[in-house]
Design goal:
heterodimer, A: 500 residues, mainly alpha, B: mainly alpha, 5 helices, 2 strands, 3% strand
Chain lengths: 500, 201
């Protein structure tokens, strides 16, 4: 009796609470679901920050003579917006979604190198948090506090290391866990994840090299790289088009797979599948454009040869990448024609998403035409928002496409379509008006130096509204996913179609 | 009479560690390639001025009184060749299940890595340049410091590989092949850096 009593008393003290156990499991997770979900949730949180900053900047631009934000903080706010959009949202969202869905796509049990994936996730989280802290304490490009500018560079370096680690995991998973499938036979989602991951793994190390130079110079002589105000001179290419296409290449695969499944045909019967693979592969040409770290502007020369000399590199680095989303959109529509399509939320979201990415890249190509005089205007900001919000829309499509096979609880089509339409509207509102304002010479990264009356004023209001609307879309989508998880498991339509 | 169908042989699974090492090697090559490109850009665009005697143009890049100890840098280059040979020997020994030779090869790889770090420090000490006066000094320390870190990372890989072999996993040839590949990549990037930074200056 005494012994039994002692055991009864000591039992609770030996067992950790269930919540602690769950937390420990999550912290030490090395499986594709938890790491992929963590990255996706992290990217969603950064999207909240990016949208909020977008709203603040939009409001700040309503009146070019008044100031909501301290003038000294504006440079950092613009820089934070770019960082949040690209390294807070687009890159981790695409890598996270790839990690989450790759084993399902390849019929594998888990990803390759799962502990490296866990390292990548924690590195990205720690690095992005460090960058955020540095911005809050007057660090970042143009920051006045030396320690926090150094902290920013450190954080950015850690973010890049984390993203490279994740990209290595994605690429290795696709190459080694195909279960005997030929590379040309794997789903387009996996193939595009491979192309994007190789791009990230090869381009971001170049940025790390630049960070090392800038950091050593900043800490010591400050004679070669120009100090805090010039950080973006050396690293700005990582958050500009066409480099951003590298981060969002997986959107192309999401659209292609959604089209095939919506059309109720198998991947093998996908029309012009070889061309589709080449189309996705074309996106890899951006690697060359990025690592040269130069903007290739097209300017009319004095002679036809001089014009041609300017046009060839411009076309190679700005027009060729356009083919990637264009080919995928066209052939996805062709796949729909070849099959028996039905209403699909995944297709609607991914089609809108890739369409927005394409529009952003067209804008970037236009910006590099010297005669249009768009360099240094808000046109470039709009192109970035198009690409990043486009990737978010495509990611919504990707979640809708795969969540059924991952959880057994697919999302209903109609709400996803409605959210995709609202997201499309939000993206257009957050970027198209700045395309117009760019032609009217509204300067980039500035809240002064333009007339806030007329079209430009309306454009800035619309942009602020667009960012706010995007925030609503993401929150609503998260709510939809949470609601669907409480429902009873049903057969996933996309899975059923894929198996037929 | 029809011949009996042949059964499929065992499928050989591609090593994840080897493929992962290949991607990390590519990343290291791009890291150093990017740094060397910026180095070349700065060197090409360094300001020029007329020599005191007139006539000749001088680039303000490497100061006249700074001498790069070529014995040390050349020794490092040759040490890399030895390191690669040892890394490959480890693969050769592992393929034959020869634990003692594989361990010895990895130990020598680790030791030559240590020698490389020592040589790099000796080179910095012998050059004795400051870090606060011009672009060359800043960039020299940045690029050689990065190379130092890359060598250290390769040594960490050697250490882990040796630990695994010592623990009995001598048949994991793909891990040792990935290890050798990484050392090849590091050696290749050093060769490029050696030529541009130490030979061409």
């Amino acid at each position: 009796m005494t012994t039994t009593h002692a055991e009864t008393l000591s039992a609770p003290s030996r067992q950790a609470p269930a919540s602690l156990g769950a937390l420990a499991r999550w912290l030490s997770a090395a499986d594709h679901v938890r790491i992929g979900l963590s990255l996706t949730i992290g990217a969603a949180l950064w999207l909240v920050i990016a949208s909020a900053v977008g709203v603040v900047l939009g409001l700040e631009r309503l009146d070019s003579s008044a100031a909501l934000v301290d003038a000294g903080a504006l440079t950092q706010l613009f820089s934070l917006h770019r960082f949040a959009l690209v390294f807070g949202v687009a890159a981790p969202l695409m890598l996270g979604l790839s990690l989450w869905t790759l084993p399902t796509q390849l019929h594998a049990s888990n990803i390759s190198l799962p502990r490296l994936a866990a390292f990548g996730w924690w590195a990205w989280l720690a690095g992005s948090a460090t960058v955020l802290v540095s911005y809050l304490f007057n660090g970042g490009p143009g920051g006045g506090a030396q320690q926090y500018v150094e902290l920013y560079l450190l954080g950015l370096g850690i973010v890049f290391v984390g993203l490279i680690a994740l990209a290595v995991v994605v690429a290795t998973t696709v190459l080694t866990r195909r279960n005997g499938q030929r590379l040309a036979s794997i789903p387009l989602g996996a193939f595009s994840a491979l192309v994007g991951a190789i791009g990230v793994a090869l381009t971001l190390p170049v940025a790390i090299g630049a960070i090392v130079y800038v950091w050593v110079d900043f800490v010591n002589a400050r004679v070669a790289f120009g100090g805090a105000g010039f950080i973006n001179t050396w690293l700005g290419w990582t958050t500009r088009e066409p480099q951003t296409l590298i981060y969002v290449v997986p959107t192309l695969g999401i659209l292609a797979d959604a089209a095939v499944r919506t059309a109720r045909i198998t991947s093998a019967r996908q029309p012009l599948r070889g061309v589709l693979l080449v189309g996705v592969g074309i996106a890899a040409t951006v690697i060359m454009s990025s690592v040269t770290q130069q903007a290739h502007v097209f300017a009319l020369g004095d002679t036809p040869f001089a014009t041609l000399q300017s046009f060839v590199p411009y076309a190679l680095f700005n027009l060729l990448p356009l083919l990637a989303p264009l080919v995928v959109i066209m052939l996805s529509l062709l796949a729909l024609k070849a099959g028996k399509p039905s209403v699909s939320g995944a297709l609607a979201a991914s089609l809108f998403g890739v369409g927005m990415v394409f529009t952003g890249l067209v804008g970037s190509a236009a910006m590099h035409v010297d005669a249009l005089g768009l360099v240094g205007t808000v046109f470039g900001e709009a192109a970035l928002v198009y690409v990043v919000y486009g990737s978010v829309l495509a990611a919504l499509g990707g979640v809708a496409l795969h969540i059924g096979s991952l959880t057994g609880r697919p999302l209903p089509d109609v709400p996803v379509i409605l959210l995709a339409l609202t997201g499309f509207l939000a993206t257009v509102l957050a970027s198209l008006p700045h395309y117009v304002a760019g032609f009217m010479d509204q300067p980039a990264n500035s809240t002064t130096g333009y007339s806030d009356a007329g079209v430009v004023g309306v454009a800035n209001v619309a942009v602020a509204l667009g960012h706010a609307l995007m925030l609503v879309v993401v929150v609503a989508f998260v709510g939809l996913v949470a609601k669907s998880r409480r429902g009873t498991p049903v057969t996933d339509r996309y899975q059923a179609q894929a198996s037929t | 009479m029809t011949a009996p169908a042949l059964t499929a042989g065992p499928t050989r699974r591609t090593s994840t560690v080897f493929v992962g090492s290949a991607f990390v090697s590519g990343a290291v090559v791009m890291l150093m390639g990017g740094m060397l490109a910026i180095w070349l850009d700065f060197r090409a665009n360094a300001p020029t001025r007329a020599a005191e005697g007139g006539g000749r143009l001088i680039k303000d890049w490497l100061k006249k009184d700074v001498a790069i100890p070529e014995v040390v840098s050349n020794t490092m280059m040759f040490t890399f060749v030895v390191t690669c040979l040892m890394a490959q020997w480890a693969v050769y020994a592992a393929r034959r299940g020869d634990k003692s030779h594989a361990t010895l090869a990895l130990a020598i790889t680790l030791f030559t890595g240590l020698a490389l770090l020592n040589a790099q420090i000796a080179l910095w000490v012998q050059m004795g340049i400051a870090l606060r006066t011009d672009a060359y000094e800043t960039m020299f320390y940045a690029i050689t410091g990065t190379m130092f870190a890359i060598i250290a990372s390769a040594m960490a890989y050697s250490f882990v590989a040796m630990f695994r072999v010592l623990a009995g996993r001598v048949n994991d040839v793909d891990v040792l092949a990935g290890h050798a590949l990484y050392w090849y990549a590091v050696s290749g990037t050093f060769a490029a850096m050696w030529f541009i930074v130490y030979v061409q200056k």
